[in-house]
Amino acid sequence: MTVPSTMRAYRLLGWEQPPEVVEVPVPEPGAGEVLVEVAGNGLCHSDITMRQMPAAFGEAVGWAMPFTLGHEVGGRVAATGDGVDGLADGEPVALVSPSSCGRCWWCTRGLDGTCPHGLVGRGYGADGGLADYVLVNDVRAVLPIGGLDPVHAAPLTDAGATSHHAVARVASRLDDDAAVAVVIGTGGLGALALQLLRALTPAQVIAVDTNEARLAYARDLGAHHTVIGVDGDTRAQLASITGGEGAHAVLDFVGVDDTIAAGVASVRPAGAFALVGAGNGTLHAPWMHGLPREAEVFTFQGSNIADAQAVLQLAGDGRIRADVDRFSFDQIDDAYAAMEAGTLRGRAVITP
Questions:
Q1: What pTM did the predictor assign?
Q2: What is the CA radius of gyration of the chain?
């Protein structure tokens, strides 16, 4: 594959400054590295957070300006460095989103999403995929995807893998068709979680959102029930659907005060509440009476390599679909605006 000497990149050039499209050299892969030509890069709400991040926070986690945004990457192998085997030029691949060392206590136990060395990675403190090419310095992160379209694979590396991580964590509670799972927020991650619940468990799935269009989409994806709004009436509706017993699992992909309160209140005893959404909400639950008995309440951001492999396999087998809204490189700012406005049907993906 012929690789040019320069490329476009959508970069943060300074703290609390808007990103800019600039021309930069195409990196050359060294030993153990892989250069990937980007076919698609999914956009994430965390990108917007990074665009507004003060220097003190970014520098505290080891980030240095400038760097290229974008951490949901699908593409094709453009070049490999010495010591890289098993990857052919032009082969379609997806890149694991979280960074990890592969050697620490967490990584060696399959908990690479919590790797303490993973605070800097592609698109967060290091150059990411909102460019024509991206350099991968850890071949563990390069996953061949066979016949899966890399544009559709891109959002599966983060949105899909994170949703899989949540579903896998609660799946043991959803082992028969009498089980009920609630998905709060049916945007990018919630829509994928809904599909994963349908694909991996026999549970009845209830989708909750404030947007009727999103709920119509949830029904199209297989939701058994939908509930509009997140307020006191939401809890009553969920109680009615579950016969007053509550849900075996609630997955909150919004994470504001109202969704957390409604979600925890809707969990049955010995159920689970998973907080995935980064809405800066707070859990207010007095001891003994505020939480369901024997229930699990947990929160996380991200996923691990096994999640990415699993969700890409499910998509390749046609068991889930990754709907995307395509935008050209020149439309990156428009895509972020549409994401913030909530007007997207699928995941926004930039196609250089």
A1: 0.94
A2: 20
